[in-house]
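User: Can you model how manganese (II) ion sits in this protein?
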Amino acid sequence: MLIPQTSTSLADCLRLRRQKLANLIKFPVILWSGTNSPRNFPANPFPFRANSHFLYFAGLPLPNAAIRLEGGKLELFMDDPSPSSTLWHGEMPTRNEIAQKIGADVARPMTELESWIEDAVTLAVQDAATWTQQSQLLNRWVLPQSPPQGIDLDLAKAIASIRLTHDEAALTELRKAAAVTVEAHKVGMAATPQAKLEAEVRAAMEGVIIAHNMTTSYNSIVTVHGEVLHNEHYHHPLQPGDLLLADVGAETEMGWAGDVTRTWPVSGKFSSTQRDIYNVVLAAHDACIAKIQPGVEYEDIHLLAATVIAEGLVELGIFQGNPQYLVEMDAHALFFPHGIGHLLGLDVHDMEDLGDLAGYEEGRKRSDRFGLSYLRLNRPLRPGMLVTIEPGFYQVPAILNDANVRSKYQNVVNWQRLSEFADVRGIRLEDDVLVTAEGSEVLTAALPNDADTIENLVGR
Amino acid sequence: MLIPQTSTSLADCLRLRRQKLANLIKFPVILWSGTNSPRNFPANPFPFRANSHFLYFAGLPLPNAAIRLEGGKLELFMDDPSPSSTLWHGEMPTRNEIAQKIGADVARPMTELESWIEDAVTLAVQDAATWTQQSQLLNRWVLPQSPPQGIDLDLAKAIASIRLTHDEAALTELRKAAAVTVEAHKVGMAATPQAKLEAEVRAAMEGVIIAHNMTTSYNSIVTVHGEVLHNEHYHHPLQPGDLLLADVGAETEMGWAGDVTRTWPVSGKFSSTQRDIYNVVLAAHDACIAKIQPGVEYEDIHLLAATVIAEGLVELGIFQGNPQYLVEMDAHALFFPHGIGHLLGLDVHDMEDLGDLAGYEEGRKRSDRFGLSYLRLNRPLRPGMLVTIEPGFYQVPAILNDANVRSKYQNVVNWQRLSEFADVRGIRLEDDVLVTAEGSEVLTAALPNDADTIENLVGR
Ligand SMILES: [Mn+2]
Ligand SMILES: [Mn+2]
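Assistant: Here's the modeled complex, given as structure tokens:
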């Protein structure tokens, strides 16, 4: 474990964060960092990823550690490296060195944690070794697959309210993630003319992330089949008429995420049908970002995207009818079947481990509507919130070939006209947008998104 | 899930494998594939890695599946993709299509598995969701952290004996892994002169692996601090006098692993001290490979490496005394504190999920000796076994600064002379070697290892 040198004091930032928590929660809070998850055998684990709530209040990705927060005080529980771990893993900072770095008031070995659990609340960590330990120590089930319950629910609500808007230290990290993500996309575009397979473009993009000593914040999507929304295959050959959709994001060493999507023509030149649809998606993207400001409902941003897409498809002759009416009957979801975006922070879908607790304003629930049910965020926007804006257009066979869907939307879709757009299987445009007092700031603005510039970046 | 087209029939290969198992085990065998492990929230998992025993007998990395083997018959249990999974993940092959591909006699939905568990033996899968399910269905603990017990132990022994030597289909995959691993190392060497950080060389190497649509078979080591044996940090700058140690391997889509280490000078030119030690390690490497043939004890290969290293260090004046005697007193382990290698197959330490069951001949146990305790393989070699040969030289502060160690070896080490080799912190050379009827075949022989050629590959 490397202790990074930060320009502003990590300890000061963490002190402010836990003061906010102390104002909301009177119980002692214990947060575990988690441990490695094994891959095919215990000594061959996946790379360690610390629990995000721990990271937020402890600041460093320490494996096998816990922190206890009470009344603004920070207690660190972790073991000093063993002599054999020094042999295999080198000299590591001691517990006391780390305690000093993060401004802990006390540092104790992990075995003492059991003496400090009375009345403590917690949140479940993802790996089984740790949630088992949490459950045993606290003598109640603490399960990552179930939403927080009882006294833990109050903690979840308090942390969600704090993490919902980002402080300066978080924004510094998020800007780093955004910058490397932007570079990865530029390199991906430039690598496309020489690439024969999706995997080769993925390699170029992830290479940038690895070279910056970062990781991907989620499994990359790099595909000529953008109509498969969560496509994690990379074996398809690139054909000259294809669009390549790349949804790739970097995560900093401290765990903060970027999340960007661009779609570009493999040949470096959009066909006229591809360009027409691309510009519809871009218009939705730009309209949404222009509307972002404090007080605006995120659901209204989503509906704005739906409306702009519907308008564009009416203009292209794919839809027929009044755009507002098309959105009311969820016709947009035929081609845009997901939400306009989500919270972004330490998690790519920030705090999704808490279910909809962070994404949905208290008292609100997911809609049953085909065109709204996938919306991950439904709150009024506030300064300091970071959200993605990611409209798209997809021709998903499972939707468009569904007999019920076809009959319901028989009269609003010009299927004949649609067939002329067969070379547009999937387009998505996604940026990371910070809500500011004045409106918004696009953290990933350095990555162009207009069709002409994209063509130039791909080269020929 | 893509069904790959293989040149020889996957079904025929799998039939032979399970016939071997049927000859050894009369109980029905159920093997689970496992499921995704969550990263920071359930919808953001690590990439899926199927259990290796499942992979060996089912041939494809199918998530959330199980196979039942009895008397040479294969029954596949998995669910057809749901309509919503088709929306998000695209058209997937059906259960019946997969059953045909792998030559299953029967294919059933996962819910029917509970009707087929009577008298079944199994091996634990690593992820908690699956081993919990295994334990519940079989009504006994099936835990990945504990060695197989009771009737499962017989299964473990049978599978270990089968997987210990590789069939042609396995070797085809292992040669693919070796070829991409070799290319990754060549690209890493070539990328070094332009790189400022370890992470940049790592990116170049892993980029090759990703571009071939493969994954790394373990977390890469790419470090100028080779003396830290399991160094998974990549943040150090590259300095002209540094040696860079890269232990990086590719794993094919079907799960078969490569595992190669090279050590090269960042400047493209070994210092004379670095070259001297490099040639000692290379001499040990070459002597070990020359000695490999059926019937030879792997422990003797290890001791040969120890002896060649001791001889070389005597010649350089670092050791004083008789090499044979130095090895008997474990002096070699001062600088070579790990084993000469391990089994390689579907796992980088093949079948290490079974503890030492595969690595150690029945009745043998790990030695207590400082110079032997880390040996992962202790069996007579047989044709078809794939092993690594990976001698090294390291100046590990935790060993060399230990007062007990220094006093024990006070008279055999010329500490003054040793101090002249301060620019050699860690060197390792590792290749993947197949035991053949005639002797051996180095699957990774296309990657040079002599000092001059390495210098040329690094370029200037
Ligand atoms: Mn997103
Ligand atoms: Mn190895």
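A couple of observations from the model: Chain A touches chain B through 65 residues (CB under 8 Å). The longest strand of chain A covers residues 243-248.
User: Helpful, thanks.
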